[in-house]
Design a protein that fits this description.
Keywords: NAD, Oxidoreductase. This protein is an alpha/beta fold and 472 residues long. The protein is built from 21 helices and 16 strands. It folds into 2 domains: 256 residues, NAD(P)-binding Rossmann-like Domain (Rossmann fold), CATH 3.40.50; 195 residues, N-(1-d-carboxylethyl)-l-norvaline Dehydrogenase, domain 2 (Orthogonal Bundle). Helix 10 crosses helix 13 and helix 15 runs antiparallel to helix 16. It binds D-mannonic acid.
């Protein structure tokens, strides 16, 4: 079988030098930032924006990409759309598991001007209630004690400390689904620096030389399957272990606040704006919140994919009511939330992109805050309705309880705590009592907590349609 590589795809344009270190070399990065960067190089002929991709949690992606010289195919599949292109922007791959020191050295390399990140919500070791670094996290404690850093924050700070020696500014570009993601990352970096060596001087150097622009990223990219690989092989005769499949839609809105230069992303559809907040809020609160609602309700109803879940009229109806009645009032009145919501539901319905409910259901403890609970807090401050948001949280609660009762361990960094709560005599109250998720204001005894408990009771015995009728 012929494998995709530099030898079998010699015409693909490749950068020659490192410009970007990307932490979190998952499918999303490859289908999003790596594709934009590839297209920008194609257009301008600038060869200085090679990406060094760092795999954070396992060496699997490194093992897929290394024999392919970093090349991979991006397949876009939509209704009536099917195109494949080979992306050449990743020129080196490092496994942080095997070589944490190499990650730090690369971030320190003065040729590099941007460090971008897609390490998912849990990668930031955040305390969701305060938005600051969890200083009791055992990996953070171990990194601060001086080992070759294993956490993303530890790697970033150690790399930045090296850059200070050559006085090389840096742009750190967070591309994860978190509100004010640039500011949030700047804060956790500051928290880490404050506990480390030479904290005053390093902190000052960072505030003068490192920028943390916020960005909103959007593209649906399911995990690649063996069927995808066989499909590509049949089409092209090439075997590609690192292939990624995405929807045609893509969006990247970036705060125009860099400390360095950047690829010509603006020429290939990236929008640079003074303030990302309105975009980011709408995307997280509408797209990601509805995704989670469909993942939990759909998973419980036995739907394997998000497309199947959104095709169920009861689930689609609930999604629309959550968007229009509860979320929309919390969003900038200048934005057309209903139209955006309809477009999102159409994207979810893409039948050619089997995105599983199981994948979106992962890491719920990290996702509820950024996607749903911020909206609840804003809605409550405005005395607006929150009932459908309560159903979304109740769907997660039921999902956690069902999974636990069925003897499955959740795919969630708080799996132990969630499993214990779900096995307690009053699992709904125990789950809502987890302050690291719900804070002290949205717990079991709060007005919102009571709404969640009611919805959870209705969902336990009734259908989604019955729950909606009962709560209307
Ligand atoms: C999804 C996101 O897995 C999830 O939780 O909601 O990855 C979603 O597909 C992207 O944010 C779309 O841009």
């Amino acid at each position: 079988m012929t494998r995709l590589s530099g030898a079998t795809a010699p015409d693909v344009v490749r950068p020659t030098t490192r410009g970007i270190i990307h932490l979190g070399l998952g499918a999303f990065h490859r289908a999003h930032q790596a594709a934009f960067t590839h297209e920008a190089s194609l257009l301008t002929g600038d060869t200085s924006w090679g990406i060094v991709g760092v795999t954070q949690r396992s060496s699997r992606v490194a093992a897929q990409l290394l024999p392919q010289d970093g090349l991979f195919t991006l397949v876009e599949k939509g209704v009536g759309v099917e195109r494949a292109s080979v992306i050449g922007s990743i020129i080196e791959v490092i496994s942080a598991v095997e070589d944490p020191a190499a990650v730090v050295e690369s971030i320190g390399d003065p040729d590099v001007r941007i460090v971008s990140l897609t390490v998912t919500e849990k990668g930031y070791r955040l305390d969701p209630a305060t938005g600051r670094l969890r200083l009791d996290d055992s990996d953070i404690v171990a990194d601060l004690a001086g080992r070759a850093p294993r956490t993303v924050i530890g790697q970033l700070v150690a790399g930045i400390a090296l850059r200070r020696k050559t006085d090389s500014p840096l742009t750190v570009l967070c591309c994860d689904n978190l509100p004010h993601n640039g500011r949030l990352l700047a804060n956790v970096v500051a928290d880490y620096v404050a506990r480390g060596q030479d904290s005053d001087r390093l902190g000052r150097w960072i505030s003068e030389n490192v920028a943390f622009p916020s960005s909103m990223v959007d593209r649906i990219v399911p995990a690649t399957t063996e069927e995808d690989r066989s499909w590509l092989h049949e089409k092209t005769g090439l075997h590609d272990e690192a292939l990624v499949v995405s929807e045609p839609f893509r969006q990247w809105i970036v705060e125009d606040a860099f400390a360095t230069d950047r690829p010509a992303w603006d020429l290939v559809g990236v929008q640079f704006v003074a303030d990302v907040e309105p975009w980011e809020t709408m995307k997280l609160r509408v797209l990601n919140a509805t995704h989670s609602l469909l993942a939990y309700l759909g998973g419980r109803a036995g739907y394997v994919t998000i497309a199947e879940a959104v095709a169920d009229p009861a689930l689609a109806s609930l999604s629309r009511r959550m968007i229009v009645e509860n979320i929309s009032p919390t969003i900038d009145p200048g934005l057309n939330v209903s139209a955006y919501g309809e477009e999102v539901l159409r994207r979810f319905a893409n039948p050619n992109l089997p995105h599983t409910t199981g994948q979106v259901a992962m890491d719920g403890s990290q996702k509820l805050g950024p996607r749903i609970l911020g909206t609840v807090r804003d809605a409550r401050a405005m005395r607006g309705p929150t009932i459908w948001l309560a159903v979304a949280v109740a769907a997660w609660v039921r999902f956690v309880i069902d999974e636990t009762l069925d003897g499955r361990v959740l795919d969630d960094p708080m799996a132990g705590i969630l499993g214990a709560a779900a096995s307690s005599p009053d699992p709904v109250a125990a789950l809502l009592g987890i302050e690291r998720i719900f804070g002290t204001d949205l717990g079991a005894e709060s007005e919102f907590g009571l709404q969640v408990a009611r919805a959870a009771r209705l969902l336990e015995t009734g259908s989604v349609a019955e729950t909606e009728t009962e709560l209307s």
